[in-house]
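User: I'm preparing a small set of examples for a lab meeting where we compare how different chains pack in three dimensions. I only have the primary sequence for this one, and I'd like the structure in C-alpha cell form so I can line it up with the others. Please keep the answer compact; I'll paste it straight into my notes.
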Amino acid sequence: MTGAAPKITLHLVASLDGIIAKKDNSVSWFETADTYEKGTTVTEEDATAFLRKIDCYVMGSHTYEHALELSKNYGWAYGDTPTIVLSQRNLPVERNSIQVFSGDPGALVNELLKQNYTNVWVVGGAALVKNFLKNKFADEIRLSIVPIILGDGLRLFDETLPEQSLRLKDLTAYKNGMVEMVYEIKK
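Assistant: Understood. Below is the C-alpha cell output for the 187-residue chain.
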C-alpha cells in the first residue's frame, strides 16, 4: 500500500485529425504500413521492461468489451497487471487480475488507486478520459498519433473540456510513422 498519490497517465491513440475510434468502434487503422527511416525502433525487451513499470490499468466498460473481443485473436493485452473497469453494468470477468468498479472516479482514485498503486494508466474510453481531465485526477497525457486522417468518428477531445495548460516532457518518432508525445498536466 502506497498511501501517496499515484502517477496517473492518460494513454491515448488517435489519428492525425483527433479520432480515437471509427463510428463502428473499429481500430484496425492503428496498424500502419508507413515507414520513417529516422524513427526509433522498440525491441520486445524494451517494451516488456516499460510495461512492467505500470502497476494498474483503468478503463471504461466499452474499452474493456473491445479489449475482450480483441483478446480472442491476440491474447489479453494487459497481462496479469491489475485492471480496473469502471462500469455500472454486470460485465464478464475472465481473469483474476480484472476488477469491476461501480463507484465514481473520485472514489476510485481516493479509495483504491491511492492505497494500492504508484503508476496507473487510464487506457480508455473518451468519457472516462474526459472525467479524469475535468476532475484533475491525471498527471500526464501520453498521446500516440497514427499517420492517418479518418475524417469522422469518435473525437479525442471536445468543447466540454476546460482550458488546460500542458508541458511537453518527451517526443518520440517511431519507425512505423507513429509519433508519441508525453505531456505533463500543469496543476
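A couple of notes for your slides: The two ends are 25 Å apart (CA to CA). The longest strand covers residues 7-15.

User: Perfect, thanks.
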